[in-house]
Hints:
The structure holds 3 protein chains of 3 kinds.
Chain A: H1 2-17, H2 19-22, H3 54-89, H4 92-106, H5 111-121, H6 125-152, H7 155-163, H8 167-203, H9 215-222, H10 231-260
Helix pairs in contact in A: 1-3, 1-10, 3-4, 3-6, 3-8, 3-10, 4-6, 5-6, 6-8, 7-8, 8-9, 8-10, 9-10
Chain B: H1 5-11, H2 40-75, H3 80-84, H4 94-104, H5 110-123, E1 128-129, E2 134-135, H6 136-171, H7 173-189, H8 192-206, H9 219-248, H10 251-258, H11 263-300, H12 306-315, H13 319-347
Antiparallel strand pairs in B: 1-2
Helix pairs in contact in B: 2-5, 2-13, 6-7, 6-9, 6-11, 6-13, 7-9, 8-9, 8-11, 9-11, 10-11, 11-12, 11-13, 12-13
Chain C: E1 5-14, E2 17-27, E3 32-36, H1 43-50, E4 58-61, E5 64-67, E6 70-71, H2 77-83, E7 88-91, H3 105-116, H4 121-134, H5 140-144, H6 153-165, E8 171-175, H7 183-198, E9 202-207, H8 210-216, E10 219-224, E11 227-233, H9 234-239, H10 244-252, H11 304-311, E12 322-331, E13 334-344, E14 349-353, H12 360-367, E15 375-380, E16 383-384, H13 390-393, E17 400-403, H14 417-426, H15 433-443, H16 460-472, E18 478-482, H17 490-507, E19 510-515, H18 518-524, E20 527-532, E21 535-541, H19 542-547, H20 552-560
Parallel strand pairs in C: 3-9, 3-10, 7-8, 8-9, 14-19, 14-20, 17-18, 18-19
Antiparallel strand pairs in C: 1-2, 1-4, 1-5, 5-6, 10-11, 12-13, 12-15, 15-16, 20-21
Helix pairs in contact in C: 3-4, 3-6, 4-6, 14-15, 14-16, 15-16, 16-17
Amino acid sequence: METAALVVVAFLALAALAPSVLAPGDPLAIAPLDSFQPPSLAHVFGTDESGRDIYTRVIHGTGASLLIGIAATAIGLGLALVFGLLAGFGPRWLDFGTTRFLEVLFAFPGLLFALLFIVVYGPGVVTSTIAVGLSTAPGYARIIRSRVIQVRTSPYLEAALVLGRGRPSRIVRHVLPNVAGSLFVLATLGIGQSIVWASSLSYLGLGAVPPAAEWGAMLSAGRTYIASFWWMTFFPGLFIVLSAAATTLLGRGIQQRGRES
Amino acid sequence: MAGSLNVDLVAGRSRPDPRPGARPDGAGTDGAVTDGADTPSARRGRLIRWAALRLGGVLFVLWAVATVTFFALRLIPGDPAEAILGGPGSQASAEALAEARAEYGLDQPLFTQYVVYLGHLATGDLGTSYALRDSVASVILVNLGPTLLLALVSLVTALVLALGLAVWSTRGGRVAAAVGSLLEIVAAAVPHFWLAISLILLFSTTLGWLPPVSVPGPLGLVLPVLTLAIPLAGFLGQVMREALLDAMESPFVLSARARGEGDGGVFWRHALRHAAIPAIGLVGWAFGSLISGAVVVETIFARQGLGRSLLSAVQGRDVPLVIGVVLVVALAYMLVTTLTDLADRVVDPRLNRVSR
Amino acid sequence: MSALLSVRGLRVRFGDAEVVSDVSFDVAAGECVGIVGESGSGKSVTARALLGLAGRQASVTADELRFDETQILDASAARLRSLRGREIGYVSQGALVALDPLRPVGREISDSLRLHTSSTPAQRRARVLELLADVGVPDPELRAGQRPDELSGGLRQRAVIASAIALGPRLIIADEPTTALDSTVQAGILDLLERLRSEGAALVLISHDLAVVSRLASRVLVMHEGRIVESGPSASVLAEPQHPYTRRLIAAVPTDRPRGTRLGPTPAVPAPAPSPAPAPATPAPATSLNGNSGVTPVAGRDSAHARRAEARTPEFPSTPVVVAAGLSRSFGARLAVDDVSFTLQRGRTLGIVGESGSGKTTVARLVLALDRPDSGDVRLLGKPWSTATERERRPLRPRVGAIYQDALSSFDPRKTVGQIVADALTHGRSQRAGVEVADLLRRVGLDERVMNRRPARLSGGQQQRVAIARAIAPAPDLIVCDEPVSSLDVSVQAQVLDLLDELQRDLGLSYLFITHDLGVVRHVSDEVLVMRAGRVVERGATEQVFGAPQHEYTRALFASAPRIGGDLDLWPVPSVGS
């Protein structure tokens, strides 16, 4: 199963970096006469309201969509790293304070924090990406914190102390590498989730907007036509599912391998 | 227990890890580990202390959330009064602006505003939604019921589905296990809107069995519930399956079988409870996930509810309503988390031990 | 009278691997048969196979596997279920998860009653209390309602036994019933099993501990790699073992083996590496008196490492390595260490023995300066140690090493063996470590190819060797050993103890050796401290303490430890002199 995931991820990477290889057409080319065509041999995924080929748009949109997912994850993990390390390493009071702060953030489940953020700063690609990043940060921070504590209190840290290693040396040689391992797994799991959430926001009209060939934007445009022209939303959505599933599978595979070794 | 990262991500609680230690055990005197410290009154005392601490924690978080929303309003660029009336550029009339200023005390010093705000909240006054020409509180009250119903039914459905999936994949051999695992991952990676569309396509447009929009009565509930329940079931199923597998391989199941317990007994008396533990821990999070899913689901199926109101409030920059909904949801969420913590302790009494 | 249990040609396979090969034996009513083997011998799989519980992946075949009138392999599932618990009882090791951790032990016990008898809950409850009292659990009313994690190890084991014998089974299979229990507690459990046997049950007792088995079993079977290599009456098998494996096993038990004698077979001498430059032959730093030391690998002597050890001749050779005075440490209300003092001289081994909760591990941590004493102090090599700051201690740290019971968890999981040992070596210095690491690994009896592997892939014995290599890398004066062999098989334990002995002689090391195992401590120590509840109750030269213990606790402790031959008298002074 992991090989399937790898293949999918490779395909997506190719689509992101060299879309013309997979879809030679122009994603922005309008052909009003061909609008609202259902999937056919000429247009594998059908056409949208302006006659643009959806398959081409989906492929060309991969880069932007993946970028949004990666950016949101980076924001989330970056913040989480700061909080997690502070809480895990700092003195008791810092840990206490940070954990309380995280608890407060946790009181805003799921999209709610993102929505609050958007209400304040307005809709758009940038704000929705930041919003998703902020929403995921507390979850990651909690994990990083407990991982830091787990490593700090482990026997091999003590063994390093017995060998005569000073604190900074122990942190750099032992704690950080062991924490970083989990980070990687978190990142792969997180990218999938971020893509899903960011696209949900776009679907609701709060994220990316047309004519950008970005999956979320395509969803947003297709929203009004769901009942009659389902393919406008279905295929971008399918790619979203594939990306999220593939990255999640990969992440879990890496996690399994880490546990076995 | 093989706790996957996903569970940690969500439940964030470290379980007491019963390591069958290799060190000799027995304190030399064959005496008890909990000597006298575990009388019923001591246990009650601990429970009360725990409840009090929790209550304090909940109140603290609520206060913090209120403070966050207070500042959220004032962070919006431009005139707060305008923001209240629908955001910058809302072109509100001068009287409306004055009215808003008076109600929210925007001419007062910040601290006074804050106190007034907290005071309002304490009495249940969540402000007014100018867009809907109604008090926020009444808007919420009207919409709360349907959303809670949706969330509850979806939660139960998800739990049932997850349990079924977990059991089937552990009983059925390797193929079933692989398929089950794949299903779970995919289910958890599916965005609500896409699932909704696919379900509508399948059951409404193609098969015609169910209505594409929500109608009153149970039939109109089916698709929205499925849309919410399936991804959640995927996630819960993963967790339950791991716990189930763990339990079935553990020494106490061997002991039970050696006593003459059959497969059924082993499952119902032992493994099930162990599989339920992580699931219960996740119910709180699941509730939150359902609420945010409701935003999409209610919109697609045109169902009245808090989610839909929230979305139109965000789209229309109806700030007081957004803040009101967020506050109410936070309150509900904290309540649910506290309840699940309590349930957790009932199902797994090890959490009640003296040292944590 | 035909045997109650009859096994002929039992074979168990998991996939391609045959884990149990051609095992045959009989057990009669009222008889105790012991099965002895180390990990991987197949003894536990055999036990489970007798119940038909070898597992879904196992394929079990036998010419005969008969309990009373029933052929186990042909019996229906329902028949097997009715046998289990009612006619055949299974006692497993009483770990925290031997009984369902979420249910009170009373429920677990009453389950047997519920499954096999028609009785009311009230009747069952009464019977449970009876059973608990019968197996020696004080205050059964309270205990029946408690969960396994609320009971001590000994009580848990008794509860497990109660659930197994609830219906008076005619055959009891006990798999490692006393492992991980203190000796005094162990003695109680063995007494209980003996009583059950004398009441008419047939007992199959499985253990890695020869002494435990010899105490109860009239006949013993020795298993190795899935086969029975020797069997017969326990007295004769243990007194005159025929098979080489049995001989090795018995020889490996440290009890009664004088200081300095080799426990394990002599290791093959690893091929000496070509030395980078011819070095003058260095004489062994510390001499010791013994005859059977066996071959010492010459390769180590010429290494840079040994040269460095030589170079660090102590300024004052008569300075004691460790002086602890009046150490006390409490954790909250609990006094873990109470006024403990001792001195450890260079090249000697001080053994600290005690049961769990005696404070010996805390003493180890205080000596390693991983913890600060509340009062009293530790001086290392004449210099202040516990009173110094960590910064002041740091230059001295390379002089103290440590090895633990769980070697694997003391290794950074991301590092390879080579990196772990090199870490201890280079410590800020350059990359010439490669050769030295290979040297060290050979020194501890490991092939240098192990360097690139992760410790998780090694066996327990190999992991401990890596830990030893790491500990001796900075050429320390002292090594604190905290239960280093407690989780190893007897034969592996023997090799590790021999290695430690050898290293002590070659490198002039001093050991602070902490253990609960009386046999081990007697074998390795020059002096011994007996600890109980944080205090030192007896101290002195090993043979003096063991030969004529003064304190009543010491006497009780020694009396409770099972020994091969089943002699419960006080430990005699060994006749083998130095």
